[in-house]
Amino acid sequence: MNKKRNKTKIIIIVVAVFLVLAAVIGYVIIKDLKQEDILRDEVAVLSKKDITKASYDTPIKTNGDYAVVEKTIKEYLDDYSTTLKSVLEILEDEQLTNLLSANNYKNDGPDFVKSKEYLAKTKSSFNEKLEKLTKMTSEKEIMKKIEKKNLNDYYVDLYEELMLRGVADSDFKESQVQLQTASEKINNLLDTQTQVIELLISSKGTWSVDGEKIVFQNTDTLNKYNELISGLSK
After folding, report:
1. How confident is the model at residue 27 (pLDDT cuts 50, 70, 90)?
2. Least-confidence region, from 85-94, 152-161, 184-193, 223-232
3. Contact status, residue 182 vs residue 197, Cβ threshold 8 Å
4. pLDDT tens digits, residue range 83-133?
5. How large is the angle between the packed helices 168-202 and 113-136, nearest 10 degrees?
């Protein structure tokens, strides 16, 4: 009789433990699914932002390994956005827009030491950033960021889905069009301005500044100058 009672007690205890474990596991699964939903909702918000203007350095809303995925996505997008904005802002640089002005001709001519240094640095910086942005759109580079975090495959796959087939796919494709336009426009501008400055240096003594105009003594130099200036509007 006692054996039966002991056996019954053991069965009850085992069932109770099982029920507790099932409840705990169920709670963990539900909590885990909720975290993924929060992450997906947050990424959906990120995907609606304008990557040329927005900041992605926003509070982390998930926990645990989901937070690692969220933080990695936001850091990557913010780095890309910051670099992209610095590239596009070159076109609004006051020094660049005033480089071929009568005022700069008077202040930096006829040897244009500061102008040449500025143009060389700007071109180098622009193309380095452009190369970085192009590299950052590659699948290999995107995945390298999460692979350093030592997460299990589930979270790596989730990151891949959200980045490569989600926010990065749409934002990066859109920005690539802008980058291509900016690349052609800015490199043409910098190259042409460099040619103008080199022309003025090589012909110093044959031109002067009169008010807001530059006056040439040589017709060939004048024609070459006008040809280069007209090329800036193309």
Report:
1. very low
2. 85-94
3. no
4. 988 888 887 888 998 999 999 999 999 999 999 999 999 999 999 999 899
5. 160
Which residue's structure tokens are 């040619």? Answer: 195
Q: Spell out the domain ranges in the chain.
A: 2-231
Task: Quote the tokens at residue 49.
Answer: 């932002």
Q: Say if residues 170 and 161 touch (Cβ distance below 8 Å).
A: no
Q: Are 199 and 225 in contact (CB under 8 A)?
A: yes
Q: Where are the alpha helices (DSSP H) in 53-152?
A: 64-88, 94-97, 102-108, 113-136, 139-147
Question: Contacts by 57-62 with C-beta closer than 8 Å and gap 24+?
Answer: 62/35, 62/38
Token reading at 183: 């690349």
Q: Residue with structure tokens 């645990």?
A: 64
The answer to whether residues 189 and 95 touch, using CB atoms and an 8 Å cutoff, is no
Half-sphere exposure of 109 (CA within 13 A, CB side): 24
Pair of tokens at residue 109? 């001519």
Which among 144, 155, 147 has a CA at the least distance from the CA of 63?
155
| Under 8 Å between Cβ of 123 and 190 | yes
Beta strands in 130-227 (DSSP E): 207-210, 213-216
**What's the token pair of residue 130?**
């452009």
